[in-house]
Amino acid sequence: MGMKRLVKRALAGPVLGRIAAAWRPNALVALGYHRIRVRGEISPLAESLFGPDTETFSNQIAWLSQNTSPISEADLLDCIERRRPFPKRASLVTFDDGYLDNFTQAAPILKRYGVPAIYFVSTGALNRRELFWWDELAWILRETGVANATLRGSALDLSTGGRQRLLNSLTEYFKRTDASTRKLLIQELRQVLKVDSVPHEITESTLMTQEQVRTLIDYGISVGCHTVSHPCLARLCPEAQEKELQQSKTELESWTRRPCVSVSYPFGEAEHFNASTKVIAQKLGFRVGFSLIRGANRLDGLDPWALCRILAPSDLDSFPLWFSFPRFMSIRQDRLDRKAKSPIDSDATLRWDSIVPVSAST
User: What is the set of domains in the chain, with CATH numbers?
Assistant: First the structure.
């Protein structure tokens, strides 16, 4: 076994984990997931959304149940609103979007270990039975047999590495533009790359149904808002933000027959929501808002409308490290992310603005 792996395992051990908890006895670490799958399973959709496989996820949840104090949405609200300290080594599990594997694979594991969670559901995709745009992009670039193509006068690099760069570039561009532009561009990509729409059976095997969302309550899982169309809220005017949040909240309350009091902002980094977002969320009756800004949450100086989360790692060895040292691990991950982002990716993202200008209305 290599030295790095030995060091990682030593740091991830329960002794150092408990020592770390003593340094921050009242901090909450909220973990974010999107998708999980059976080990070895290959998806035709966006690979970047997958975290641990089901076996590793089960081991992570077992570790949380044995070494932390998992809390529910109700526990979280009680601590924040009554200014009660978080339990020592407090943890909170969350899932975003509304994927079927969250229900079929993750929910039974959470119930087995008695670990509560919050599932943030984007209602539009589930209502329309249409995949999220990032899954559509991944499908098109995976399925195309075209070797050379041009979009609006620009050649597309469809080599193996080129497809991944193209996917990364389009993903970043799509985050910054409006739904109508995304839809039009996806249609054009399908045409030039000669790819049909995603088969109905793949869509149905990917998204939860309204009934399944309702059934989450039986697993000890609360349901929170993740907007209707999963936009970058900061790019919307206040009226459009309010419509996204209000409609999703109303739909989820109709499905679950329970108040929807938590919201998770799509994409979740600091540039993806703003002060208006938080004001609107409070106005609509949400009691907490979640970001994907990395870090732990302390009651002192806590902003209930921008709670921090960390994306859970895909392995088990580093999992205790992320829980016990979230700030250190977040700084390390930020450095790796910056190093991995090549100038080619940045240039390619800029080129999309000249090919398909971002709508001024967003």
Answer: 23-129+207-245+288-324 (3.20.20.370), 132-197+340-362 (no CATH)
